[in-house]
Amino acid sequence: MPESSTKMGSPHFTYPCKEGHLEITKKLIQSNRGLCFLKDKNGRSPLHAAAMKGRVEVTKVLLEDCPESVKDVTATDETCLHIAVVYNKFEVIQYLVKWLGERPDYADLVNQKDLGGNTVLHLAVSRKQLQALKELLTCNPNISKLVTVNAMNHGGFTALDILDVLPYGGKIDMEIDKLLREAGGLRGRDIVSHDNDRRGCYHRQPSHLNSIKYIMRPRKENAHYVLLVTATLLATITYHAAFSSPGIVKEGL
Fold first, then answer.
1. Of these four, 27, 60, 149, 159, which has the most CB atoms within 10 Å of its CB?
2. Which keywords label this protein (predicted)?
């Protein structure tokens, strides 16, 4: 397919995918399979559009006919799984995890990072999506063994760190904490301290608050995250003040 065609956008094909018009989607793919790979101005493909709206049946059709489209990312490096988590479309999440678990060539998509360095695990924790986390960490052995539970985003935060800086949510927080720890989850500072102990030096961990701000960025559908961003940033400042020694690098211990 010519490169120029991928930059034209696909409003006519994206619409039936987004609205769940299954038969129209099938006919359009039959007439031109290349439509699966066209993107809009935000870099979203038809698969992203279907995931965003929770269109499971359309998602199935797109992946059956164009499985390689699962690798497409948006302008902010989000996969279709990132999008499904961000928009809290659990049925799509469930199907994608199952689909990836059956296809080793694509399975590592669960660890792919967006523009802020966040995996789907970071995003699911940031939105406290317990069922999505269970799908990733316990329900599908083919996927759970691949998930990098201690992956760090660009701010040096693991999924467990993200939970720590969010406003406390009671029982659901305890369940998520248990789930992450049973999967081997650690805080970023513990990983950094362990690595530095082995090297015999201690370094101040950077804060990179922009990474936290990015992971919690509000969407039109989730306006309440504006308040959550503010709370998260304040908590993050406290977090780093407690565990960082300003400007000190100590060598040779």
1. 159
2. ANK repeat, Membrane, Repeat, Transmembrane, Transmembrane helix
